[in-house]
Each structure stands twice: as structure tokens, then as C-alpha cells.
Design a protein that fits this description.
binds 2-oxoglutaric acid; Glu/Leu/Phe/Val/Trp_DH_dimer; seven-stranded mixed sheet; Glu/Leu/Phe/Val/Trp_DH_C; 13 strands; six-stranded mixed sheet; 2 domains; Rossmann fold; binds 1,4-dihydronicotinamide adenine dinucleotide; alpha/beta; NAD; NAD(P)-bd_dom_sf; about 45% helix
């Protein structure tokens, strides 16, 4: 199933519950604007490299549109549209004053030199600078992009429009970034995992966790959960699955990643090393945290998933049919639009700080993050109980309801 078809399926389930008519559904689902651009750079060897870039602005009923930039070979218009719609519901679930957008370039950033990556980012800004801005659409990091890409983006955008660091979030801390943004998505995933365990009566010390993806989100989630006494039995990245049924030595794992020139777990040999895809179907996992690509839990592997709880750190990691099967089996799934909302929440804090020319401490960022996520979690849990629906449908119900309400209050043409 294509990505936008999947997220639309979830949308319609909640829209049925909200009794939204077909015309309004169409207005809420269809993106406001979709842009596809050519991004051409001169490669280090003097040849030309041509790539395709996208920005999809989905909805602005609740505020300026917000969402990350993904650099990955599989980026295309359909995926970007789907991710942009997720941002609309996610910012609403977290009750942030934003709409939703997403962008990216179809490129493998690992195949580019730092110079080429910088030129690519700047060339992309040259194409889209007039449709983004601190009050219209504010990008941020996602898969394959980091604080450096954000810094180049801001610098190039300011060449056209003048000083305004709030045009993008996830910047380096020295360059108007927020302390705590880098860890925020993973920390939020960890915080919400604990809340889910509390509700289900699961004790951290007796709970085995496996995490797919050991980049920004996966590594911070693993660190937080390890420090909270969970046993991390498996981790994976593009180089393989690293497995110890007794619990990985997380100090050694993190040290290895930090000191590996390519930032992967390649060469870590203090545990069993298995093929990449084995992580998802390992036996005796209590909590599975997909923190890499979309669509990884699907018809081909859902029967072999042993986890009782799945926390969607990645965006759209479960295909709808597999999601239905998991629900039928009683697996608790904390959906992406709640589970990974910590990132955009601290992006919001960064934007607020930029606009006020003021800096928060790490303690304040963490406290307010915890507060925002706790509220959203309690609200989603409560809707799930009262309507007798899955946590995913409850989260969509809450998010779509808020967007609908804002559109109605402003007059329907504001969607
Ligand atoms: N960075 C952020 O603040 C946010 C990220 N997300 C989502 O979290 C997910 C991960 O994003 P980041 O950590 O930022 O990306 P990243 O680029 O920092 O890390 C991605 C990780 O996934 C691994 N990976 C790629 N393909 C894999 C495969 N087939 N099997 C196992 N591992 C694989 C990579 O080796 C890397 O360790 C994405 O779905 C993203 O949309 C969601 C909210 C915010
Ligand atoms: O930090 C942000 O603004 C957006 C992060 C993002 O792209 C996401 O939550 O999927």
C-alpha cells in the first residue's frame, strides 16, 4: 500500500467517529500545496549531480506549517505527502500552535561528501526559499539530516530574507539551536514508553526492549530507556542486528557508535551479530521500537512479531493490515503521531526562544517536554478508553478534531 493511502485509511477511521462529511474530509486530507523541484549540484569530480526535492504543505489551520526534511533515496511525492499529513495531526495531538508540512530530497546522503551535501542543501533552499519562513512553514531535521544541514539551510535562506533564525529548527546550539532538541525525539519516545508500561503494569527491570534504527531517535531512546532500567536486548542499524538476550552493554555500544567514523554499529562484536531484518522478529521481546523507515512491519513479518507493545518512534512503520492484526492480537501500539512528538515539541520551544531572543536551560526544556507529552498521552489514553478504540484511532480523533475545530472557528476556507 502506498504511504498516503495508509495514513488516509487511519484518517477515515477517526473521521467516521467524528462524523465528518465527505466534503470536509476532502478539504482536511488534501494538501494545500505541493512543490517538486530540481536540485542540481557540481560534484567533487566536476560532474553534475541532479536530484529531486519536495516540500508538501499540508494544513495551516492551527498555525504556521511545521515538519522535517528527509534526505533518503526513497523520498518521493507520495511519501512526503503522507508524512506532511502526519505532521498536521501530530502537532494537533501535542497541542502545538502549528499546522503540518514535510520535505526532502531523493538522495543517499552517505554517498555525498560534506561539501556536496552543503551545496545540495543550499541549492534546495534556492528553489523553495520563498515558500518557507518563520510565520509560514518551518522545516527541521528528519532521517538523513542533522543540525549542520539546518545551519546551512538557515544561512542560505537568510541571504534572501535577512536575519531570522526561527525559519528552521534543530540548528546547532551555538547557532540559535535549543539545548535538548537533539535528544528530544528519543527522550520523548522513552518517556512515553514508561507511561505506557505504567498503564499496562510492566516493570522496567523485567522488560526487554528491541530498537530498530540507531540514528538520532533510536540512540537517544536506547540511552534513556537503559538509564531507566529497561534491558535493551537488541539494536539494529543499516549494518546489522546486534543481539544479546541477557542485555547489551549499552556503555560499550554507545562508545562504539561515537568512535566509529561512519557513526554506525559496524564492527561491534561484544554480542551476536545477525542480519538487519532479524531484529523485528526476535523471540521474547516485550517492547519493540521501530526507529528507522516506514512500512517495516507488514504482511511478511507480522505473524512473527513477539512484542506485546510497539512504540512507533519512526513515522508510519506499520502497514494498516498488519496494524489490524496486531490490534486483534491485543498488542498495544503507541502511534507515531504521539510517540515521536517529542521532536516537534522541542522544535516549538526552539522557535519560541528564537522569537524571544531568549535561552531556556536544559532542565526547563526537559520539564516542559515532559509536561506536553504527559498531557497528550493522558488525553489520547482517555479517548481510547471512552470510545473503545485503539490508541492510533484515539490520537487521530484528538488531532483531527482539533484541526476541524480551528478550521470552523476561522471560517472553512482557512483549512
Ligand atoms: N529526527 C527527528 O527528530 C525525528 C525523526 N522521526 C522519525 O524517526 C525515524 C528515524 O529518524 P532519525 O533517527 O532522525 O534518522 P537517522 O538518519 O538519524 O537514523 C536512521 C537510522 O536508521 C538506520 N536504518 C536505516 N535503514 C535501516 C534498516 N532497514 N534497518 C535497520 N536500521 C536502518 C540507519 O542506519 C540509522 O541508524 C524516521 O522515521 C523519522 O521520520 C520522527 C520524529 C522526529
Ligand atoms: O521538529 C520538527 O519540526 C519536525 C520533526 C518531524 O519531521 C517529525 O516529527 O516527523
Amino acid at each position: 500500500m502506498k504511504a498516503f493511502e495508509s495514513t488516509s485509511k487511519y484518517f477515515h477511521r477517526a473521521a467516521d467517529l467524528l462524523e465528518i462529511d465527505d466534503h470536509m474530509r476532502q478539504a482536511l486530507l488534501m494538501p494545500r500545496r505541493e512543490i517538486q523541484v530540481q536540485v542540481t549540484i557540481e560534484r567533487d569530480d566536476g560532474s553534475l549531480g541532479t536530484f529531486v526535492g519536495f516540500r508538501v504543505q499540508h494544513n495551516k489551520s492551527r498555525g504556521p506549517m511545521k515538519g522535517g526534511l528527509r534526505f533518503h533515496p526513497e523520498v518521493d511525492l507520495d511519501e512526503t505527502r503522507s508524512l506532511a499529513s502526519l505532521m498536521t495531526w501530530k502537532t494537533a495531538v501535542a497541542n502545538l500552535p502549528y499546522g503540518g508540512a514535510k520535505g526532502g530530497i531523493g538522495v543517499d546522503p552517505k554517498q555525498l561528501s560534506t561539501r556536496e551535501l552543503e551545496h545540495l542543501t543550499r541549492a534546495f533552499v534556492d528553489q523553495i526559499h520563498d515558500i518557507v519562513g518563520p510565520d509560514t512553514d518551518i522545516p527541521a531535521p528528519d532521517m538523513g539530516t542533522d543540525h549542520l544541514v539546518m545551519s546551512w539551510f538557515r544561512n542560505q535562506w537568510e541571504k534572501y530574507h535577512g536575519f531570522h533564525p526561527a525559519v528552521i529548527t534543530g540548528k546547532p546550539v551555538e547557532e540559535y539551536g535549543a539545548v535538548g532538541r537533539e535528544e528530544a525525539t528519543g527522550r520523548g519516545v522513552g518517556t512515553l514508553t514508561i507511561k505506557t508500561c505504567n498503564r499496562l503494569g510492566m516493570k522496567p527491570a523485567d522488560t526487554k526492549v528491541a530498537i530498530q534504527g540507531f540514528g538520532n531517535v533510536g540512540s537517544h531512546a536506547a540511552k534513556f530507556l537503559h538509564e531507566s532500567m529497561f534491558t535493551i536486548i537488541a539494536l539494529s542499524d543499516m549494518t546489522g542486528t546486534y543481539y544479546d538476550p541477557e542485555g547489551l552493554d549499552m556503555g560499550a555500544v554507545l562508545h562504539h557508535k561515537l568512535n566509529n567514523p561512519d557513526g554506525t554499529l559496524h564492527g561491534f562484536n561484544r554480542c551476536e551479530v545477525l542480519p538487519v531484518d532479524d531484529l523485528l522478529t526476535l523471540p521474547e521481546i516485550d517492547i519493540l521500537i521501530p526507529a528507522a523507515l516506514g512500512g517495516v512491519i507488514n504482511a511478511s513479518n507480522v505473524d512473527h512479531i513477539s512484542a506485546k507493545v510497539i512504540i512507533e518512534a519512526a513515522n508510519e512503520p506499520i502497514e494498516p493490515d498488519a496494524d489490524d492484526q496486531l490490534n486483534e492480537r491485543g498488542v498495544t501500539v503507541l502511534p507515531d503521531i504521539l510517540a515521536n512528538a517529542g521532536g516537534v515539541t522541542v522544535s516549538y520551544f526552539e522557535w519560541v526562544q528564537n522569537r524571544q531572543h531568549y535561552r531556556w536551560t536544559l532542565d526547563r526544556v526537559r520539564q516542559e517536554l515532559d509536561h506536553t507529552l504527559s498531557n497528550s498521552f493522558e488525553q489520547v489514553w482517555q479517548v481510547a478508553q471512552s470510545k473503545n478504540v485503539s490508541l492510533r484511532t484515539a490520537a487521530y480523533y484528538l488531532g483531527i478534531g482539533r484541526v476541524l475545530n480551528a478550521s470552523k472557528l476561522a471560517g472553512m476556507t482557512s483549512v
